[in-house]
Structures are given as structure tokens and as C-alpha cells.
Design brief:
Layout: E1 13-16, E2 19-22, H1 23-41, E3 45-49, E4 54-58, H2 59-83
Antiparallel strand pairs: 1-2, 3-4
Keywords: Membrane, Transmembrane, Transmembrane helix
Transmembrane segments: 21-39, 59-78
Protein name: LapA family protein
């Protein structure tokens, strides 16, 4: 079956149970799973020094905020690059 793509070759895919899945999607799912495992494994408290205040929080909350911030920045940069 021919696909209508802008490039001569489409994105790299793997067929799983009759469906084409992009390698990029598999990589994202693996990284997300590792991040969730890492966050749930680190449950102790940690002291975080912001510019002036010092806050004591559970490590999982600090890691969750860090992962979400990184994802948001990555999406903004990817969107900005795709507009060029």
C-alpha cells in the first residue's frame, strides 16, 4: 500500500499486531515508563533552595515538576522549529 508522504521515505516504523507504530512513539513510551519508575522509587523528602526560601518537599513532587517542565519546554522548542 502506497503512502502519501512529503519525503521519499516515511518515518521509521515497526509493525506490532498488524499496526505500524513509529519508533519515536516506542522511545517516548519507554522514556515515560522509566521516568515514572524513577519518580515512584524516590519517595524521601528533600530540601530545595529556591532563590531566597528553602522548602522541604517529597522527592517525587520535585521530580514530577522537573519532568513536566522539561516536556513543556521540549514541546515549545519542537513547535518553534517546525514553523521554520
Amino acid at each position: 500500500m502506497a503512502r502519501n508522504t512529503a519525503h521519499a521515505y516515511g518515518p521509521s516504523t515497526v509493525t506490532v499486531k498488524g499496526r505500524d507504530i513509529r519508533l519515536r512513539t516506542i522511545g517516548f513510551v519507554l522514556l515515560a515508563g522509566l521516568a515514572i519508575w524513577f519518580i515512584t522509587a524516590n519517595t524521601g523528602s528533600v530540601t530545595v533552595r529556591l532563590w531566597i526560601p528553602t522548602v522541604t518537599l517529597p522527592m517525587w513532587s520535585v521530580l514530577t515538576v522537573t519532568v513536566l517542565t522539561g516536556m513543556a519546554l521540549g514541546l515549545l522548542i519542537a513547535r518553534r522549529r517546525s514553523r521554520r
